[in-house]
Write a structure and sequence with these properties.
This protein has 661 residues and is α+β, with helices and mostly antiparallel strands. It contains 15 helices and 27 strands.
Length: 661
């Protein structure tokens, strides 16, 4: 896909930088393994309990595979201790237990062991990347050509989306007038890759942020100041027609540079000590469902009980991120009641309205907006009935502290419970529903369905490191991470999400790798996992965590529930490149791949001593016969979001359908 003439932009640039990077694959590593149990009840209805992040998609797949009416299947998503994207797919064991339960008439359970979880995988794709980026002498971007090559494993998972994600969000962080993206995914004889925290975006973010650090060093610019001059404007549409609402990245950069004393450290610390900066951005939910339709992405139903209790139903899934708390908190805030009085029922396809699942950092924004709509509708019924009882204009009534009262005379009011009774007397049994569908994206080209979001979050991180120049041993001493969250609905949970992202980011930066070894030919020559156990797959422990300084930057976004944006995945993205940039600041060597291990640093240091380029990383990108790129002019060149060289897609689809008949 090409958004403007990139070669023309590069030719006109003051400088053009070309770099290749490699991001090793890794896995989610939840402590809790995948497990499913299926049973058939006395009425012949099949129920599946599963550690899934997407009960609706599992429900839909089971109906198709088992050739059963969806109404005869119930899927219950059990609360998960961790998913990180690894429980987003529909897995074989979920289907097998259902089929076995139907055939045997008895409950059937499968719990994967750790080695099976590694082979189940759907983790981070290994990605080779090539960046050609043009800049002015002041360091402002003029154009970028990004090529990515993904090793996707043996099966597709969300392969097409993953491939598009390696290019879709490259434009929403910094002003980029022209952009070209070529992506290629190959199938290999390995476990299938899929969505892992950040889904396809951490890899190019690593390359782009390290290259920006190189550009700043080459042009003798401060990396923080250079980034501040190129931040994408708020309320704008990018070159690839992604719509940005609010953006507080500038404030994130200013907060982390101040907190870390950046100006007195970068380039000024003794040999072996360094600091590195990187930024990132991420979706607050994908703009389109996995299967295209016009129905809501999230639904919430509320039941009001005459005892004063509230029950809220939603198909979203608690995976340890605190979505149940957000759901209850929003409803309690709108109704002015206490969270303890609210019962939350989630992730059950028989009981709850459809929510597409816990992925793409979508739950807070989508479920949250649906919950507010449902709660506001319920509140209107209560307000109308209470106004009659109190003989007060409805617009003067407020809901707070389990009461409904007159703003001009707070003593004149009634309890929340009495308001429900009054409303039930007037309207009968009380309930309400709310739903949310994302706004339509301006991107109308093929592939434009990946990347749009109602709101993007932004992060900036500075990492402080110590590197032993003799051995290459690397210690991360401090991490300062500022995240543009819109509004923190629960600051404790939000900080936990940031810290979890930093932890996972450090694991990917320093040690994690899903690598394989080939068996001898006499044993089939197949590729098998090299380290399929928690004993050998290295991941940081609590003892490895550095001092962590978390900053929540709040600039409410009008598209988010009460201004909230995502916090589950975005803070991970800047960590890996910030580590690489800090290593360069400490000892002057570039490690253009992750993980950044001491042996690679030692190798680069040896090259530096020999007077050679002090760099470890991929040297070339293979020649690929790319098809003709879709030409989509950016908005400022008259583009309307459609490709000018794409055939009429609707007409093509119609002709295809006619041919099938």
């Amino acid at each position: 896909m090409e958004f403007g003439d990139v070669e023309e932009a590069l030719d006109a640039s003051d400088h053009v930088f070309e770099d290749t990077f490699y991001f090793e694959g890794n896995t989610h590593l939840p402590i809790e393994q995948h497990a499913s149990l299926a049973a058939v009840d006395r009425d012949g209805k099949l129920t599946l309990w599963s550690s899934t992040q997407t009960p609706h998609y599992v429900h839909r797949a089971l109906a198709r595979v088992l050739e059963l009416p969806p109404a005869r299947i119930r899927v219950i998503a059990c609360p998960n201790g961790g998913g990180f994207g690894g429980k987003s797919d529909i897995f074989g064991h979920e289907i097998v237990v259902c089929k076995a339960a139907l055939d045997l008439g008895r409950p059937v359970k499968i719990a994967l062991n750790r080695e099976e979880v590694f082979y189940c995988h759907r983790g981070r794709h290994p990605v080779l990347m090539k960046f050609r980026t043009g800049v002015t002498s002041e360091g402002k971007l003029t154009g970028m050509h990004l090529q990515t090559l993904l090793d996707g494993g043996a099966y597709g998972s969300y392969g097409v989306a993953s491939t598009f994600y390696t290019g879709a969000l490259a434009t929403v962080t910094y002003e980029l007038p022209r952009y070209r993206f070529d992506g290629c995914r190959v199938f290999t004889n390995k476990p299938a890759c899929g969505p892992k925290r950040g889904h396809g975006t951490p890899q190019p973010r690593f390359g782009q942020e390290v290259q920006l650090d190189k550009i700043a060093a080459s042009l003798k610019l401060d990396p923080a100041e250079m980034r501040l001059q190129m931040i994408a404007p708020a309320q704008s549409v990018t070159a690839n027609h992604m719509k940005i609402s609010t953006i507080a990245l500038g404030e994130c950069i200013r907060r982390v540079t101040a907190a870390s004393d950046w100006s007195n450290k970068h380039g000024k610390l003794p040999e072996g000590k360094g600091v590195g900066l990187a930024c990132g951005s991420y979706l607050s939910g994908a703009g389109l469902p996995i299967y295209w339709n016009k129905m809501p992405h999230s639904g919430v139903q509320i039941k009001l009980d005459r005892g004063g209790g509230v029950t809220v139903f939603c198909g979203c899934t608690e995976i340890g991120q605190g979505s149940d708390d957000v759901l209850v908190g929003l409803v309690a805030e709108v109704l002015g009641t206490h969270p303890d009085d609210i019962c939350c029922v989630t992730g059950d396809t028989d009981l709850t309205p459809v929510d597409l699942g816990s992925y793409s950092s979508r739950v807070t924004l989508m479920m949250g907006n649906a919950a507010i709509q449902a709660a506001e509708r319920a509140r209107e019924s209560l307000r109308t009935a209470a106004a009659d009882k109190l003989d007060v204009p409805a617009e003067r009534l407020v809901f707070a502290d389990r009461r409904v009262f007159d703003t001009e005379d707070p003593d004149r009011g009634m309890s929340f419970r009495d308001a429900i009774i009054a409303a039930e007397e007037r309207f009968g049994t009380l309930g309400s529903v709310g739903s949310y569908t994302p706004p339509r994206s301006p991107a109308r080209y093929k592939g434009g369905g990946v990347g749009p979001s109602a709101a993007y979050s932004y992060s900036a991180a500075i990492v402080g490191v110590t590197v032993d120049p003799a051995t290459g041993w690397l210690n991360v001493d401090d991490v300062w991470c500022a995240h543009d969250i819109g509004r923190a609905l629960n600051p404790v949970l939000a900080r936990g999400q940031v810290e979890g992202s930093v932890y996972m980011g450090l694991g990917e930066a320093l040690m994690e790798e899903q690598i394989f070894r080939r068996l001898p030919k006499k044993l089939s020559g197949a590729l098998v996992h090299k380290i399929p156990s928690l004993l050998e797959y290295k991941s940081p422990t609590s003892h490895d965590m550095p001092r962590l300084h978390t900053i929540l930057v709040e600039e409410p976004d009008p598209n988010g529930p009460m201004g909230a944006k995502e916090v589950g995945q975005g803070p991970l993205l800047p960590i890996m490149p910030a580590v690489a940039n800090a290593v360069f600041d400490a000892v002057g060597v570039r490690i253009d791949e992750v993980p950044i291990t001491p042996d690679k640093i030692a190798k680069a240091l040896e090259l530096k001593r020999q007077g050679k380029e002090p760099r470890v990383g991929p040297k070339t990108f293979p020649e690929i016969e790319w098809p003709e790129a879709l030409q989509v002019p950016p908005p400022w060149e008259g583009g309307d979001g459609k490709a000018i060289n794409d055939p009429d897609r609707k007409r093509a689809a119609k002709l295809t359908e006619e041919a099938r008949r």
